Structures are given as C-alpha cells and as structure tokens.
Amino acid sequence: MARCLITGVAGFIGSALARAVLAQGDQVRGIDNFATGKRENLGEILTQMDFRQVDLLDLEALREACVEVDYVLHEAAIPSVPKSVLDPLGSNRANVDGTVNLLVAARDAKVKRVVYAASSSAYGDTPTLPKREDMTPNPISPYAVAKLASEHYMISFYRCYGLETVALRYFNIFGPRQDPPSPYSGVLAKFITRMLRGEQPAIFGDGEQSRDFTYIDNAVEANLLACKAPAGQAAGQVFNVATGRRVTLNETFELLQGLTSYTGQPGYGPERGGDIKHSLADIAKAKAGLGYKVEVDFEEGLRRTVQWYRGR
Ligand code: UD2
Fold first, then answer.
1. Span 201-214, mean pLDDT?
2. pTM above 0.90, yes or no
3. What residues are in contact with ligand 1 under a 6 Å CB criterion?
4. Which one of 80, 135, 211 would you pick to mutate in the ligand 1 pocket, going by the greatest count of ligand atoms within 8 A of its CB?
5. What is the pLDDT of residue 177?
6. Distances (CA, A) of 172 to 27, 35, 93, 242, 288
C-alpha cells in the first residue's frame, strides 16, 4: 500500500484525486490552507485520510507532511488568470514559493515521485495549434508565468537532486466540485450554475475563443498513471493532459442550453485581460509516455457535471 500526499486536497482536483487514491486502496495524507479549497469537498472522505491544515509557505509543516510519503500529488495553487493579474505577488507566493518549499521537503524526505499540476496557460497565445510539449512556452498572465516557473523547478529538482518529478499540463479541467461561482471560477462552473438557476451567463469577448475542456476523470487518471510510469519515460518530463479537441464558448453555451433548459441568450462583454484566444492540446506524448487515454469526452463530461450541480 502506497501513501500519497495530496496538496490542495480540499480543492476541486485535489478532492477528486483523494477519492481515487482511496478507492484503489492506498493511503492519503492531505493538506490544504482553505484559501480556495472547501471542507465540504472532502465530505465522507475526511475521516478516511490524514488531513492537516497546512500552508505551503510553512516549510516545517511540509517536512512533517512528507514523512514516509511515496508520492506527492501537488494540486495546491491559486488557480486563476484574472486573480494573478490583480495580485501577482500573491500568485507567485502560492504558486511558486509554495512549490519550491514542497520540493525541498519532498527531496529531503526521499519521496519517490512528485506529480505537479502544471497549466496549459504556459503556451500562451502562440498561433500554432495543437500545442505540443516541445514548443517554446510564451506565458501571458502572472499565473501562467508562475505555473511555468514551477514546472521548471520540477525539472530542476530531477536534474540536480534526482527527485523524480512529472509535470502535467492541465487543459481547462472541469467537473463536479469545481469552485462554486466566484469571480474567479472556471467558466463552465459559472455557466452551468447560472443557467440552471435561469440566470444569464456572461461571455467575455465574442465567444469564439476555444478551449480543450477536459473532464476531471481524465486528469485523475493521468495522475495515477504518472505515479506508476517508468522513470525513463516520465521523470523530469512535461505532458499535456487534455482531450485533443477544442470547443468555443458559443458552442458550449448551445450544448448547455440543451442540458439545462435555459432559453435565454448569453450577455456579451469586453474580453478579459491576460486571456488567450485558442487552446488545443496534442496528447500524443501522454499517450506514449504514460499510457494516457481520454476516458470521458467533453459532452459526457458536461452531462455529468450538469447532473452533479443539479443535485446540489
Ligand atoms: C486557464 C488555463 C487552465 C487552468 C486555469 C486555472 C488556459 C488556456 N487555460 O484557464 O488550464 O490553468 O487557467 O484557472 O490558459 N469566461 C467567460 N465568462 C465567464 C468566465 C470566463 O466568457 O464568466 C471566458 C474567459 O474570458 C476565457 C474562457 O472563458 O476566455 C475560459 O476562462 P477560464 O477562467 O474558465 O479558464 P482559462 O482559460 O483562463
């Protein structure tokens, strides 16, 4: 039985990972500072894990959290492009300083492997689609820079100290438990909750921007595969985690009209600062290196997500 340390365990992705790790019979130690995570996301699994309220800036607490840990799944972050534009220092502290602290603690505790929640935002607004891992990154927002910097720290800790690290560049992950709508929530959580309440969703720009929206189960599977993949294929590497297909916000809105019975139109407003226009992944490297495949496609993911929000 392995022991996994999940950072950001009370968040949308962290809590889904915890459920999956427990379901395969492994142990979970989870940390969260509740900056964006919610205790309610842990629900029934809180008593099945070793939960600690810890901030990534507390190195001593991280050292204790890493004792006898096999794998670290590092999801904790302040995950928002617009928030980072407003507060670049806060974004850097949580998304970079916190990551370096965790890497130092994991290295000294001789953890087997660290899997990191990197971001597709690293690619920026380069015209070439789909995005491949060997393209030169071109981040726009402070958030994207921070996520890319931490990705480089992952690779550095493998090269300098031999700590096995794997960076997974998530492409717009969505699904149950994604932030209840705040100004910084992911667009699908906002669209779905508003449309289910009969309220008009807001589209920033013309709605023709596109994303490779990826259902949460695919990201969870990628993490489990990244723990087990042979070091020669995975350690010190970066992999896209996505579906290899993009949809526009306008298309997404239409699909959601069918699923939520919302009959109105979206409200169009100005584009959001720091945004990129199109995002689409090439997932060949994850397929070859990790054995990754898309388990749940976009439409099915949307259906499951709408169903979950409806049941709340
Ligand atoms: C970025 C990353 C994503 C993840 C995420 C964390 C890219 C391509 N993706 O997501 O992988 O790291 O950051 O937060 O960089 N929008 C609306 N109406 C709304 C809310 C958003 O139109 O009410 C638009 C927004 O302007 C953008 C799109 O929807 O064009 C997606 O926005 P998002 O905040 O859901 O995700 P994004 O792409 O910034």
1. 98
2. yes
3. 79-81, 119-121, 170-172, 186-187, 190, 202-204, 209, 211, 249, 272, 275-276, 279
4. 211
5. 96
6. 28, 20, 22, 8, 22
Ligand 1 atom with the smallest distance to the CA of 80 is 14
Place of tokens 């898309």: 294
pLDDT at 184: 85
Q: Are strands 3-7 and 27-32 parallel, antiparallel or unpaired?
A: parallel
Alpha helix (H) residue ranges in 95-141: 98-108
Whether pLDDT at 194 is above 90: yes
Cβ count near 114 (within 10 Å): 29
Q: Which residues belong to the active site? A: 143
Which tens digit of pLDDT belongs to each residue from 1-33?
999 999 999 999 999 999 999 999 999 999 999
CA of 187 to the centre of ligand 1 (A): 6
Q: Where are the beta strands (DSSP E) in the chain?
A: 3-7, 27-32, 50-53, 71-74, 113-119, 164-170, 173-174, 202-204, 210-211, 214-215, 237-241, 247-248, 267-269
Domain 3-173+214-244+282-295 has CATH 1.20.58.340: no
Q: How far apart are CA 247 and CA 44, in angstroms?
A: 34
β-pair type (210-211, 247-248):
antiparallel
